[in-house]
Design goal:
eight-stranded mixed sheet; five-stranded parallel sheet; 18 helices; 13 strands
Length: 438
Amino acid sequence: MLYRKIASVIEEHLRLDSDRILLVDGARQVGKTYIIRYLGKKLFPNFIELNMVEDSIGDQLFLNTKTVEDFYLQVSMLAGDKMGKKEDTLIFLDEIQAYPHLLTLLKFLRQDNRYTYIASGSLLGVTLSETTSIPMGSIRKIRMFPLDFEEFLYANGMNETVLQALRQKFENMETLEEPMHNKMMDLFRKYLLAGGMPDAVNTYIQEKNIFMVREIQREIHDYYAADASKYDEERRLKIRRIYDLIPSNLENKKKRVVAQRIENKKGKTFADYEDEFEYLISAGIALAVQAISTPVFPLIESSGKNLLKLYLNDVGILSAILYGTNIRAILDDVKSINLGSVYESVVASELAAHGHRLFYYDNRNRGEVDYLIDDYDSLSVVPIEVKSGKDYTVYSALNTFVKNEDYHITKAYVLSNTREIKTKGKIIYIPIYFVMFL
């Protein structure tokens, strides 16, 4: 079984007599159902799993279930012999977004307090915003992502002792010895190929067959592109067009979304595609990086520019689209291949998985900086520049950025393939794989 950090969060919540129901959000295929099923069966003698998407296209038992009594009655038809007591019975409502009224019902199920509950789904941000009565105070929502790089290392046999030693090296700003650096770069490049989708990672670990890994990634990509069932045909086509444009946008110098290119219509603005962007971001299949021109802590107060970069939620899917089964482009670090978009994508997914909202610096006169994150310890902004080539010291925008006294920058990071950790003024150079500890 793959190690997932979120498992400890879910287990701790289920072991406590919490006054809130845990709601696990995230894109499809990231492993929500698997990890909840595993922990549910481990912790509770009676585990009842209800898939609401399957019900919505099948018997529709829960379609009009609006009361606690009706809910219990429907569950008893399916698993009455497993309905014990709160301490030994977990009811898992999977894909709960299929029935938005059940989100409201969670409040009353919690108040009734007869059983333990957990729910999961995708598009929960959108679904909750459209729910007539949001169960505030009754739910705790957490988001699950594909495997991050640290989880990928565990999947490849690296143990906690080694990971702790690596973290200590990062915290002390100590350079790894060359053999260990080479090993980490090898694993990092393999992560660029395999990505973090559990099915793809398991196949990579078990089979070491890039063709099989790519097949899984293409299936997930096609599924994401086609799945927007709540919208009409016209809107689904717009969503697919935006999603399909992400890899090509990332190959452009600016990388940002240009609204007029979505349908090749002049005069179109971001406002014309607000729902489509919201779908892709809320579904977890695209990561949004918002432009900021005045980077002052906290960044959310400075956001507002209608400039947006979108990244795919999984670097393996992106590398499959760009390079197919030709693994040499990544493993051999071919000089003619620019891995900039791939490196930036993996940093975006890492920062998002660590809980950071994603921003970038955009100034017409001073250039761009790839990422900005809030540092709550120093109450300042930390700029991050990502370099895939050997010119990792070339970044005029970052130099200008850190020298601006109005921004109160205390440190900045440059992530690259270089082994040596060094500091030049406020800029800290670190190997790309240490992004897992930011």
